[in-house]
Amino acid sequence: MEIQSDPKISRCKLEQMVHFEKCFEINVNIFSLKQDESVLSILQSKGKFTNVMYLNLFENHLSYISNFKAYAKKFQCKSCNRHFGHIRNMKRHQRACAGKTKRKFPGGFYSKPPTVFDKLDQIGICVEEKDRLYEWFLVYDFESMLMPMEKRNSENLEFTEQHAPISVSVCSNVINYTTPYCIVDPNVDSLVEKMVTYMTVVAREASELAREKFKDVFEALEGSLIVGEMTDDMMEYFENDLENVEKMLKDEQAHAQNLKEEFEKYCDQLICIGFNSAKYDINLIKSHLIKHLVPEKSKETFTVKRNNSYVCISTPNFKFLDITQYLSPGINYSGFLKAFDVKESKGFFPYQFLDHPDKLKYDRLPDHDVFYSSLKNANISDEEYAFCQKVWHDHKMTTFRDFLVWYNNLDVEPFVQAVTNLQRYYFDRNIDIFKCSISVPGLARQMLFESARKEGAAFSLFDTSNEDLYDAVKRNIIGGPSIIFKRYHEADKSFIRGNPQKPCKKIIGFDANALYLHCLGKEMPVGSFVRRSLNDEFKPRKRDKYVLAYDWLDWLTHSGKYNKIIHKLNSGKERKIGRYPVDGFDQETNTVFQFQGCYWHGHACRLTNHVKDEKMLKKRRERTNKITNYLKSRGYKVVEMRECIFRSQIYLNKKLQNFVNSRNPGTGRGRMHANEIIASVMNGKLFGMVECDIRVPETWPAHFSHPSMTPYEYFSEMSPLFCTTDIPFEVIGPHMQNHAKRFNLSTKPRRLLVGGMRARQLLIATPLLRWYINHGLEVTKIYQTVEYNPQKCFRNFVRDVSDARRQGDVDPSKAILADTRKLEGNSAYGSTIMNQENFQDVKYVRGEGKAMIEMNEPQFKKLTTLLENEELYEIEKSKKMIKLNLPIQIGYFILQYAKLHMLQFYYDFMDKYIEREDFEYCEMDTDSAYMAISGPSFESVIKSDMLHKYHHGLKGYCSPGLEIEADCDRHWFPRTCCKDHINHDRRTPGLFKIEYQGEEIIGLCSKTYIVSSRERVRQSNASITANRLLRKAKNARSVVRNIPFTSKVVNKSKFSCKGISKKRVKAPLTTFRNVLKTQKASSGVNMGFKLNNNKICTYRKEKRIYVFLL
Predict the structure, then answer these.
(1) pLDDT by residue (tens digit) across 849-872?
(2) CA distances from 705 to 384, 945, 967 (A)
(3) HSE (CB half, 13 Å, CA atoms) of 239?
């Protein structure tokens, strides 16, 4: 058999093997034998049949393998070339092979991706910032039939109803299409086809409006497509090389044509928004949506899928987004409308009544009892049912279909208004929210780095030579600790640290306000970095090739020769002229600045004497001259600087030398010893990261000691070092070992974030390392240092978020601003630690053969059959190449600062202001800590000699307009001196506030705890009468009459139970007490919607939440 290589020749294609298999009912596996006798897997069958045929591929020919064991001695991984003795081992390896995705380290500095308007700027077509906004969108909402399922019970999971789409309502802000349009059709394929058809009509109208708005841009682009005439200057600069001039003009024309097509796509693509559509609506219709949305040979579909959520589906005409990706987690539709000042339309619907299309013909409003919802475990009230009856009558409805249309349309009109209000908030800041992002973290990242750019900060990216450093930083990006220190404390029943003289009197919890936002406002690692390694005696290695050009450009501005030279670092984007990037540009003088690195631009000098490849240098020299001639031919003045000359100038010019040195990290250019590194960390000259071995010593060092405790006793409760590691069963305590054996729990190692007393090769940020050393920890070995320049480059972003929240407290009309800025502040941190290596491609293919080819790619992860009868498949694959172009050191520093802040609270406040015998930590999360204290109030346990300082911090800084920061010295808590400062400080990031107080705490495991309080509440006379009648009915003694008010003690609680909805937790305190007493895990029930066999279903799941095992 012959495999096709030339499409003109009719031969068998690999994708046709699936038909061969079906014809002969046999599985076909194809391999290729290499010269080293290793075997490479070419095509693996899906294994539908019993018999298997093995074929060998050589060039374009297939041959039968009669003895596979003799043929295949070893198997080779397609990605990393590793060999395996058995194909099963090779397949297992390929699923996790790191080599299937190549990592690209760009080096240089971070810059935001250019928008289409940035690209227009580069060819001289300028659009004002306020006009770079695409304002048109539509919203949609589906309603479903809930069709009972045959109960398929597993031990813990039960599916009860399948959701089948029955109708969709669409509404937009596009002129002529602002009225809700509802489609009802029980045939899903027909329903989706009609929806896409209508949306296409709306998209065409929006495209016409956009093209009219940007008419001037299209006219300018059309002008750019006209091939310019050859001028005398062009011929002169290109030395009368006619062919080069013609090529240059054609290149410009092609570039303009590509840009025109990109701008047309920008105008043609309509934003389509749903509420919770990523999880629900898209999954409800995705099989048919992809069929009607994605043409068979389209390569322009882009899908972002996270687990089973479709965050974005982008096609040439539509961009499907989920508005909840721009809102606070957990917000419902009513909350969304309320947040953006839109009145919700009142409506109720009997979801469980509509379980068959025939119900649409029902000729009256269903009875009240069928409005009951098992998901909400409630029915609507009599008044609400009366409202539905009135709607039926007022709208002259004749069938239940009319009621469905009314209800479906009810949501989309206010939805449009709420999205418009959200859009307007960002438009006022010249941010095109839906065109430039798919979620709020992406928006927050843009705003965060824009604020840093205005402060003159630039963030270096790792290049290939520093790949190991990228891995080290990523390995040490560790979240905040979540620890149970003490399982139980109760007022007047337990004792602080087991001391009978110190009974527990209160449980109190503190929360660090906006902790990650506070950390963002601290000094960050900016500029290029200098790396020192133990292997080369801590000799500095600086990335000069990324820095010298900017040193030269900024020196020209600093010395007054030019007002401001725009370059990548100070503008946040790369300047291009034609298709060539330039180093710097001065708009006033129309001058281009080019820094010519001698090696990269082929200059023969002392810096390139070692290069033996003269041909390569000549080629680079010619390319450099060609670019310079092109720039001059376009009318620009070109100023060039060679690297060798600039280095000489730095050596000879003292002012220039001081200027360049002032931009470098502060430890100098020579080698350093380990003790010099420690000294530089302590005096602040070294700012960055240190990879080292560190431990709590056996005895105190000379500079720090505790009068009554050894180092291990001092750090025993709150371990100072945190890392993620595998914990073997053998090293956990005997109590937990016995618990695991008693309940037959797994004894396999568990990967956990743990606190400890020593660590090896831990990468520590210097502010945290300085604190460690100041508190007695000992660095025993240093492996490497990474030095940056420190700068509070995000302080304006932090201030803007905090001020917006303060405005929302004072002025209710600013609540939208406050809530949105709060969300941006919370999202900014998360966007800095985004793991780009988890990115994947989602592809849609038609034909089982094509799907099989995709499945045999090394990057293949998952196949989903969308429509089996039409052979439509969704393929999820790892990316072949990932460009790691985010400065992950920012997120690393934020997490390091967060750990430092919580350590400072324990050791620099609690341990100094309160005797240890008067408090005991019970539970700690990333930004909060709960403790038992021996007094009735927090102030009552403050040491007498620290009470004045404590009060001074609360009341001693009461000057009008005086702002404080959480400095972990004088200011730990919000001021209580006056109303103005109370209101102001409650939004100051980093200050600790009381989160909850109670009399009892039970902690079971990480993020699973409860704090309860007993409160005395008054009862009204009506309540007393009701209780009296109830007791009388039960033949109990009647309560005393005619008492207008009495009181009773009620239990209130704050609890955390990760993994289950709190609304479904009944009697949480009783549950926690039972688990603590019996050590037997308890379960909770979740109900909701879940994807099952490519269908949305209602599920009920019992989940083990309350677990005793730490």
Answers:
(1) 999 999 989 899 999 999 999 999
(2) 69, 20, 23
(3) 3
Question: 473's torsion region: left (phi>0), alpha (psi -120 to 50) or beta?
Answer: alpha
For position 398, what pLDDT does the model report?
94
User: How many whole angstroms separate alpha carbon 1055 and alpha carbon 923?
Assistant: 12
> What does each C-alpha distance from 312 to 132, 191, 305, 315, 610 come to in angstroms?
22, 21, 7, 10, 51
Q: Are residues 28 and 75 in the same domain?
A: yes
pLDDT for residue 240 is more than 60: no
Which residue's entry shows tokens 């279903």?
Answer: 1097
Alpha-carbon 200 to chain mean position: 32
554 plus 610 within the same structural domain = yes
- CA distance linking residue 770 with residue 691, whole number of Å: 13
Mapped onto helix, strand or coil, the DSSP state of residue 718 is coil
| Centroid of chain to Cα 808 | 26
Residue 1039: its pLDDT value, please?
Answer: 47
pTM over 0.85, yes/no: yes
Say yes or no: 178 and 278 in one domain.
yes
- Measured between alpha carbons, how far is 240 from 1092 in angstroms, rounded to an integer? 70
492-500 contacts, C-beta under 8 A, 24 or more apart: 494/932, 496/917, 496/918, 496/919, 496/920, 496/932, 496/933, 496/934, 497/916, 497/917, 497/920, 499/917
State yes or no: pLDDT of 814 exceeds 90.
no
Give the number of other Cβ atoms within 10 Å of residue 946's Cβ.
Answer: 13
Is there a domain that residue 885 lies in? Answer: no
The torsion of the CA quartet 870, 874, 875, 881, rounded to 10 degrees, works out to 130
**With DSSP H G I counted as helix, E B as strand and the rest as coil, what are the percentages for the chain, rounded to 5?**
40, 25, 35
CA atoms within 13 A on the CB side of 977: 18
| Rounded distance between C-alpha atoms, residue 112 and residue 885, angstroms | 9
Indicate if the pLDDT at residue 6 is higher than 50.
Answer: no
Per the structure block, which two tokens stand in for 305?
A: 């899928």
Query: What is the number of structural domains in the chain?
Result: 4
Q: Give the integer Cα–Cα distance in Å for 778 and 758.
A: 9
Residues 182 and 314 in one domain: yes
- Hey, what amino acid is at 1034? K
Which helix or strand (DSSP H or E) is residue 788 part of?
A: strand 778-791
Q: Which domain holds residue 372?
A: 134-429
Exposure string for 205-241, b = 16+ CB within 10 A, e = fewer? bbbebbeeebeebbebbeebeeeeeeeeebeebbeee
Task: Average the pLDDT over 178-195 and give the result.
Answer: 96
751-799 per-position pLDDT tens digit: 888 889 999 999 999 999 999 999 999 999 999 999 999 999 999 999 9
CATH number of the domain where residue 602 is located: 3.40.960
Summarize pLDDT for 457-499 with one digit per residue, the tens.
999 999 999 999 999 999 999 988 899 999 999 999 999 999 9
Q: Is the pLDDT of residue 422 over 90?
A: yes
Q: Is position 944 within any domain?
A: no
Grade residue 261 by pLDDT with cuts at 50, 70 and 90.
very high
9 pLDDT tier (thresholds 50, 70, 90): very low
Q: Is residue 855 part of a domain?
A: yes
Domain boundary among 624, 640, 662: 662
CA atoms lying within 13 Å on the CB side of residue 653: 13
- What letter would DSSP give residue 905? I
DSSP 216-267: HHHHHHHHHHSPPPPPHHHHHHTTT-HHHHHHHHHHHHHHHHHHHHHHHHHH
* Confidence check: pLDDT of 7 > 60: no
Find the angle CA(524)-CA(529)-CA(533) to the nearest 5 degrees: 120
Contact by Cβ (8 Å): 56, 63: yes
Query: What whole-number distance in Å separates Cα of residue 354 and Cα of residue 58?
Result: 60
- Yes or no: say if 107 and 461 are a contact pair by the CB < 8 Å rule: yes
Mean pLDDT of 1018-1028: 67
- For the ranges 152-161, 946-955, 1054-1063, the maximum mean pLDDT occurs at 946-955
